[in-house]
Write a structure and sequence with these properties.
This protein is of the alpha/beta class. It has helices spanning 27-30, 34-37, 43-54, 74-80, 92-101, 103-107, and strands at residues 2-3, 18-19, 62-66, 84-89, 111-116, 131-134. The strands form two sheets. A four-stranded parallel beta sheet has the order 5-4-3-6. Strands 1-2 form a two-stranded antiparallel sheet.
């Protein structure tokens, strides 16, 4: 199922979107055809409310995209002017596709990295994250 939660706090990151990850899919295999069947619903809505939620313009917002998949949300966020997106996914195949898709933004140093990790064990602490997107 999908849950959409938005909150603002000085101690907690705003959470934009989360899906319950399927444990029945081989995401490394699925990554090859993932973009033919998946879209990023709600991007326009998120882009409209993120500046209000964060109290910053889009070009100053840093996003941590957990469960980034092939970069379906990261790409339109970066195209719209989000400052930086850091991509985390449990699938090497998904991250490979995201890296290909976002290569222009990597060259512009607007991607904070591609990290292979499963929740809840995140291998880093990034104090400059404004929004965490769970997908």
């Amino acid at each position: 199922g999908m849950c959409v939660t938005a909150f603002s706090s000085r101690r907690l990151y705003p959470v934009v979107l989360c899906y319950i990850m399927s444990r029945f899919e081989d995401y490394d295999t699925v990554s090859k055809i993932y973009d033919t069947n998946r879209r990023a619903p709600g991007v326009e809505t998120y882009l409209k409310f993120l500046p209000q939620l964060c109290g910053k313009p889009l070009n100053a917002i840093n996003v941590l995209d957990l469960g980034c998949g092939t970069g379906n949300y990261a790409l339109p966020f970066l195209e719209a002017g989000i400052a930086k997106v850091t991509c985390v996914d449990g699938s090497a195949g998904m991250l490979k596709r995201a890296r290909e898709k976002l290569s222009k933004f990597v060259d512009e140093e607007r991607v904070g990295g591609f990290i292979e990790s499963n929740l809840p064990n995140l291998p880093f602490h990034e104090p400059n994250i404004d929004v965490v997107m769970l997908n």
